[in-house]
Amino acid sequence: MNELLEFLSNNLELIYILIFAIFIGVELIKNVPSVLHTPLMSGANALSGVVIVGAILVMLEAKTTLALTLGFIAVVLGIINVVGGFAVTDRMLQMFKKKK
Amino acid sequence: MSITLSIIYLIATVTFVIGLKLLGHPETAKKGNLISASGMILAIIGTLFLHGFEDVPTINYILIAIALLVGTILGWIIAMKVAMTKMPELVSLFNGFGGGSALLIGLIEFSNNVGAESTEKASSAIASTILSAIVIGSITFTGSLVAWAKLNGSMKDVRLPKYNLINNILFLALVAFSAYIVVLNTDSLLLIYVLLIASLIYGYLFVAPIGGADMPVVISLLNSLTGIAAAITGVLYGNMVMIVGGILVGSAGLILTFVMCNAMNRSLTNVIFGAFGGGSDVAAASGGKVGGTIKKTTASDSAVMMNYANKVVIVPGYGLAVAQAQHVIHELEEILTKKGVDVSYAIHPVAGRMPGHMNVLLAESNVDYGKLIEMDDINPQFSNTDVVLVVGANDVVNPAAHNDPSSPIYGMPILDVENAKHIIVNKRSMNAGYAGIENELFYNQKTSMLFGDAKEALTKLVAELKNM
């Protein structure tokens, strides 16, 4: 219990950020028309590829062959998520252009 | 971490928020996506050059460069090649990759911080962070792959006896086991591998029983989980862009999940534990009540009917996309418009395989955005519509949603096509729809059935109209 309280007080700023980020996410998405759900899901999916930053950090610090190998796969998977996600969202949205 | 990198992360985080905001409006969505993407590129490049670690071996840089290059090329090719009908499964596949990345990071960091290679004992806070990354990453990884396999048809629903009970017990066991590892403060890699494998299995079992029609909801939920996994790994590094970006995706994905459930009038628990869309008892229960005679029609009769109509509404469903008939339907719409018929498309919120999927498919074949009318706006118009043409749609026009309390789709908002003067339904056969439910609309007095492949039938229809 003490450890938990200590953790909370040490990371109070983080908890503030967490709560605000949750509310921002909800507010941003709440009123989106259903027309955009598919591109939105795809775009959000690309954003979750931000895990790539962690994968790069892991690779930079990697000392063993195992860590290098796993890190390599993590970077490849992460960047596919990012590049593929943004590219495919863009392709989808390309089609929403208003035509006259 | 250098102050420059912190500022870069701050900028990237702001681009994510702005990007998501702009993604919410059709006019700004494209710009929003590009803004988020540039923020992501900035964060990646910043991390590469300003990370502040000392003595990073050159080989690590080379390997990172190769990995980035390989992944970028692969991701780009997949994204450019994929057909728009395959969109839901692609999102799921990419999402699985993100989860896989998070789980690998968790594994490596366990060895670094908790395992035998670490110099000091990690705090239980760090240990639980790492374990959560492994567990959530694994669940999204296998879960997304199962969703992907189901959507592309290479996997059927798998339901073990008492699967809900088994899944819930396994989930509790996962939590308990993770807690045990943290309390034990062990450096045993063996236990971690057991946890890893159990989580991977849970991800499989979690998605395996859920019917294909509910996959979009599941994908959205898994997408949200990947975001949470990214945020958790971010906590490990105190990395703000990962934390805020991940949580944004987490909460946005969760809200989107609920919005989708609402569109189908289902609760999330019903989707996950209900195992809807395959129960033979369900089909039998409502199947008995439907009956009567169906009326067949031909392309030329349908063409005449539409030619002399004032107002025609087209209801496209996934069957249209499967038959690759989006272009033909646009041609049909153009011909009718030229003949002075008022043509519009009625888009059910869950038409296609994912909300908004149908809009993308029709937009791809150059259908005017303004002609796509959402359900709430088109429903009052059906009473003064002369002809409704239903192509490859079934459950979204099933009146059982209004009249049959025993039907599994009872209460789902539908397109009220039965209010129109005539209804033409194009279907391959009399088989029940994706949800496996009989449709009494087909037996309605006003309904004529135009059997055949959507593309062939519509092509004939267009040819007939051209001759008039």
Explain what you see:
The complex is a heterodimer of chains A (100) and B (468). In chain A, helix 3 packs antiparallel against helix 5 and helix 4 runs antiparallel to helix 5. Chain A is mainly alpha-helical. The radius of gyration of chain A is 19 Å and the shape is flat. Chain A has 5 helices and no strands. Chain B contains 18 helices and 6 strands. About 3% of the residues of chain B have low confidence. With 468 residues, chain B is an alpha/beta fold. Chain B is elongated. A 6-stranded parallel sheet of chain B has the order 3-2-1-4-5-6. Helices cover 60% and strands 7% of the residues of chain B. Chains A and B meet through helix 2, helix 3, helix 4 and helix 5 of A and helix 1, helix 2, helix 3, helix 4 and helix 8 of B.
**Largest chain-chain contact?**
A-B, 80 and 116 residues
- Spatial order of the strands in the main sheet of chain B? 3-2-1-4-5-6
Which structural class do you get from the secondary structure elements of chain A? mainly alpha
Summarize the amount of helix of chain B as a percent range.
55-70%
Order of helices and strands of chain A: HHHHH
Number of helices of chain B: 18
As for the number of domains of chain B, it is 3
Uncertain runs of chain A are none
**Number of beta strands of chain A:** 0
Largest sheet of chain B: 6 strands, parallel
User: What's the total helix number of chain A?
Assistant: 5
For this entry, what is the oligomeric state of its chains?
heterodimer
Query: Beta-strand level of the residues of chain A, as a percent range?
Result: under 5%
